[in-house]
Task: inverse folding
């Protein structure tokens, strides 16, 4: 926060971490906390409002599988001038913070950063949801200053910067002061600044000032308010000549339904393999501003084909113009952890259109010696396009003898070949064995020409024994 006076509000409404050793918060909920208000300074400066409504971190902290929700920050105290308002309603970090598989949602800051405020610290956020946070000023979702941050596989959605400081903004992200930020496989949608059009407020998706941004496989859509830019890259206003500029490198990304896709002012942007939208998803303009834009290759005007955007589902469907249009990068998975790529080239955006197979099996729990034991395997294509040259295999249980069904291959493996399995459909196959002892069938799997495979995770145990008949004597 920068305040150290005795009339400053207390930091860390829920938790304050100040330790020299690693601390982990796991499977926890930090909710409904607030920091203190700054005290009155009279004719002197008012006290600072406390930062970190949920968590204040000045150590080495990991937050995993947890929820930071509905926390708030304190107001600055009256004085001349008035004290700064509290920042970072969800989390305030000045050291080293790793957030994974968690949610930072519904927090409200009376200052900057409704969700996460990162000042001079190192930040990593992965596979998390940053949503529905509100900042009175800049950075509805995240506010990064003098930061190094790696943000991967997250949904940053429905955050709001209510007014934004003049010449600033950032409904989803606010990035400034020589920060270096890497964004990979993130969905940044439906964030807002102001309650509509506001003068001198920019970047309802991402605001980038005097910093560097490397964005790969991003999905940016329907962020609104201010200048309406999905990304606003600009210089430090301390030097109007633009000597302290920003650099944005954006690759394999969808930017649609924005007033401006990317606005570049006295800064630099390189755009390679982009989907800009068409019809209802078209941008007012794809890029604009006084800066230098290097378009690179592959610029597509088409329908992103989102599955259910009005329900906040920005995965792509079969009809998406983003399919197989990307350039090669070192990104090997998508926002859901599914492999890239299934086509000839990677899909644009955070989501890779996936093909997912599953295999299950049922069989009898008991049988007589020598009786046929019939197994039924069910393979399901849970993806959104067909699987071809599907191969199902099942190893004979130890102690069994093959009876019928499928094709028996060397090594006591039963196999089936399915030419094609449509998206959302299933196929069943059967085979039979016999045995004179209890057997366990556990090694069965499926694969296809697209390189996807799955193994069964449930063993079928069949108890084999003779029936015993006891004599019945009537008296």
Result:
């Amino acid at each position: 926060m920068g305040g150290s006076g005795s009339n400053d509000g207390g930091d860390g409404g829920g938790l304050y971490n100040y330790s020299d050793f690693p601390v982990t918060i796991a499977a926890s909920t930090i909710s409904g906390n607030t920091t203190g208000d700054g005290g009155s300074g009279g004719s002197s400066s008012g006290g600072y409002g406390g930062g970190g409504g949920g968590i204040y971190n000045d150590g080495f902290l990991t937050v995993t599988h947890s929820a930071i929700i509905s926390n708030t920050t304190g107001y600055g105290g009256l004085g001349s001038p008035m004290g700064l308002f509290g920042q970072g309603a969800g989390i305030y970090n000045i050291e080293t913070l790793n957030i994974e598989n968690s949610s930072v949602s519904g927090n409200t800051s009376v200052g900057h950063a409704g969700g996460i405020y990162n000042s001079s610290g190192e930040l990593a956020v992965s596979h998390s949801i940053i949503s529905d946070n509100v900042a009175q000023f800049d950075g509805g979702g995240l506010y990064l200053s003098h930061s190094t941050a790696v943000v991967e596989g997250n949904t940053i959605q429905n955050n709001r910067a209510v007014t934004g400081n003049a010449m600033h903004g950032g409904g989803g992200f606010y990035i400034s002061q020589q920060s270096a930020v890497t964004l990979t496989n993130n969905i940044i949608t439906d964030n807002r600044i102001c309650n509509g059009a506001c003068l001198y407020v920019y970047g309802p998706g991402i605001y980038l000032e005097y910093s560097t941004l490397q964005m790969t496989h991003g999905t940016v859509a329907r962020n609104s308010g201010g200048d309406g830019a999905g990304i606003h890259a600009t210089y430090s206003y301390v030097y109007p000549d633009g000597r302290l500029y920003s650099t944005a490198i954006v690759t394999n990304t969808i930017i649609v339904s924005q007033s401006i896709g990317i606005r570049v002012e006295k800064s630099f942007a390189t755009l390679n393999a982009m989907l800009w939208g068409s019809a209802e998803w078209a941008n007012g303009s794809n890029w604009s501003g006084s800066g230098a834009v290097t378009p690179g290759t592959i610029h597509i005007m088409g329908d992103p084909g989102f599955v259910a955007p009005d329900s906040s589902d920005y995965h792509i469907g079969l009809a998406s113009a983003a399919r197989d249009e990307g350039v090669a990068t070192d990104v090997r998975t998508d926002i859901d952890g599914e492999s890239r790529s299934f086509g000839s080239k990677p899909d644009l955006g955070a989501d890779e259109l996936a093909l997912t197979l599953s295999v299950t099996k049922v069989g009898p729990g008991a049988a007589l010696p020598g009786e046929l034991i019939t197994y039924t395997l069910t393979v399901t294509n849970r993806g959104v396009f067909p699987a071809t040259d599907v191969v199902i295999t099942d190893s004979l249980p130890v102690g069994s003898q093959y009876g019928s069904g499928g094709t028996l291959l060397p090594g006591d493996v039963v196999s089936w070949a399915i030419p094609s399995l449509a998206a959302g459909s299933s196929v069943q196959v059967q085979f039979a064995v016999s045995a004179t002892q209890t057997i366990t069938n556990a090694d069965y799997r499926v694969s296809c020409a697209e390189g996807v495979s799955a193994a069964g995770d449930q063993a079928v145990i069949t108890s084999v024994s003779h029936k015993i008949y006891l004599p019945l004597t009537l008296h």
User: Anything to note?
Assistant: The two ends are 93 Å apart (CA to CA).
